[in-house]
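INTERNAL AUDIT FORM
Audit reference: QA-55
Scope: verify that the stored structure record matches its stored sequence.
Auditor: D.O.
Record contents follow.
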Amino acid sequence: MLLAVALLKPVAQRVGQRDDFTVEEMMQHLQQAYQRGRQSQLDPDRWQPEQLWNLPLDEVKAMFHV
């Protein structure tokens, strides 16, 4: 997680987020993203994105609980 903070903080600042983005906030966001991933029902080995191209992104996210 600390490596992710070290790598992502400069990227977050480059894309226009706040300059005062703290490590604590970054850790909180990373933890939330990790939890969303754990709760997801997406199986990358069986996922067939070609069959979902015609669906809106919000529907696909709801389908996989992300």
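Auditor finding: record pair retrieved intact. Residues 9 and 15 are 10 Å apart (CA to CA).
Action required: none
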